[in-house]
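Handoff note, outgoing to incoming analyst
You'll be picking up this chain. Sequence as last confirmed:
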Amino acid sequence: MSDKFLTTQERDGLPPTVKREPFCVIRHQSATVPVYAGEVHGRTRYTIAYFIDGRRQRRMFTDLDDAKREAKFAAEKIQLGLQATNDLRPAEREAYLAARRRLKGLDMPLLSAIDEYVTCRQRLGDVPLLAAVEEFLRHTKGVTLGVPVAQVCAELIASRKQDRVSNRYQLQLRSTLGLFTKAFQGPIMNVKSEQIDRWLRESKLSPVTRNNRLTIIRLLFNFAKQRNYLSKSEETEAEGVAKVRPGATETEIFEPMEMRTLLLAAPLRLIPLLAIGGFTGLRAAELSRLDWKAVNLERLMIELRAGQAKTASRRIIPISPNLVAWLALVPRDGLVIPDQDLYRQATALARKHGIRWPRNVLRHSFISYRVAQIQDVNRVALEAGNSPAIIFKNYRELVTEEAAEEWFGITPPEGWTPPDVPWDRRKRVFDGAAPCVDNGTGA
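Most recent structure output, in case you need it:
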């Protein structure tokens, strides 16, 4: 059922309008004209408002006596009009008085009630008004009406924070829902599927990013359904928006020389992200949840617990000898990625050195070189937490064995110390580099 019977305030998610009391009321027989007082540019103004001949009249005065005098004159004109048009037949008069009595509890003028009824009948066509009202009540039974999108977004973010989801996921929620709140400022029950689809299309996102955003919007609407802000008996508007089927894309990876350039140009804080991402293939989300306690340099393994892995199953990833050399340079305590801003710094570092940073490039690079190194798709699938079919389809024969040997042979030079590269967090820029644009490419 649509929102056609909501008031403008309810439709916009605003509180009902508070009726302003008049400063005084001028009477002439049965006719009355209210006088309102208000501040305009620091000075008191007096306004009279009344209906005559079916039209609303409104005049403003700086002097109260002038306002009262005009209100008196208006009341006299209204009374004359009542006398001229009050020649009703007994049955008509009884119908008029009965209508007034029915409206008494609604505090609504008879003309407003008739206008609203006529508008509803015109919009409903052959559908009886009572049937439409009953359908609306059935549709909204138990539903809290008029809850703004912004409120639902704030409650969802707060609930996920309470659930202790990863900081990276919270950041993704805040980003997507912040954009959605700006685009849809009314009640969530008024947002339609075609509006969501148009919003996603106008963003001109890649198919993967667009689908990721739609996933979060669907989560938002299902959350609203759980909170009784939407009907639980019907599909949400977000579920009516279809995901985009991504076309075939070429897997893009770093060349060994590009990886070497990045590592040797990286400050100490970026080495774990680059080295672990490039030499183990951990997903950005998995890397963000990883604690140094899970990185065992003696046993040459990283243990990814079920709650940390995307596949929700425990995974053991081997540590290559060159990765040991890079990790030996850094302090290993707490989270491996203590600040999500490090991902922005990594892409900015690549840009500073003229190196493209495609989506998931570190993971794609590892899998490609690892397949070429050990020639075992099933084993790489276990290490990467992926299916052998995907590995075989997207990564087989992308690089040579010689390139793989060069990739896993990238080590820090003897006696090398990571450079100190200052980062302006507010401007998202390294010294002497262009500002970083967060394009959601991931690691």
